[in-house]
């Protein structure tokens, strides 16, 4: 099987540009990155499907009435996988567009902001102060009594 170098380079460029765009803060750029990576997957499946010019299921020689062995039949799995990848890319595109639209409605921007909790955990990790757990010690009865309140807001 000969591989078309142009398609291999195209798949690499699509994946590389898609990864760069997914890492952006803008949801629309991330969506474009997902689309590019989805197209890169389709190109990889196209490369894996074999030599161009063959029919998806039956080769030209068997279509003319000549009986050939298993070599005359191409594998339909790559075409099925491309169709599946197209459907998955469409679903992810619709989801990302819904996220971008909702983000625009709420903040008039499609940039993803830093989460304060993630920033706090990152700061603790940088200073080597990451605790084993964020929960109070459940074996200490005084710690439980300090945090226990009833539904009205008073102490139990």
TrEMBL record:
In Pfam terms, one family for this protein is Oxidored_q2
* Main location group: membrane
What the entry lists under InterPro entries is as follows: CPA3_antiporter_subunitC, NUOK/Mnh_C1-like
Annotated localization: Cell membrane
Tagged with keyword Cell membrane? yes
Topological category with respect to the lipid bilayer = Multi-pass membrane protein
- Is Cell membrane one of the keywords? yes
Record-given protein name = Na(+)/H(+) antiporter subunit C
């Amino acid at each position: 099987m000969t591989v078309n170098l142009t398609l291999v380079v195209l798949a690499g460029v699509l994946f590389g540009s898609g990864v760069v765009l997914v890492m952006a803060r803008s949801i629309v750029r991330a969506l474009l990155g997902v689309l590019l990576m989805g197209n890169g997957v389709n190109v990889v499946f196209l490369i894996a499907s074999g030599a161009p010019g063959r029919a998806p299921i039956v080769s030209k020689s068997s279509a003319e009435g000549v009986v050939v062995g298993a070599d005359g039949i191409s594998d339909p799995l790559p075409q099925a996988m491309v169709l599946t990848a197209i459907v998955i890319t469409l679903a992810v595109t619709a989801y990302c567009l819904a996220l971008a639209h909702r983000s625009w409605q709420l903040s008039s921007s499609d940039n993803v902001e830093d989460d304060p909790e993630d920033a706090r955990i990152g700061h603790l990790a940088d200073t080597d102060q990451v605790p084993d757990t964020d929960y109070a010690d459940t074996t200490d009865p005084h710690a439980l009594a300090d945090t226990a309140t009833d539904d009205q807001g008073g102490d139990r």
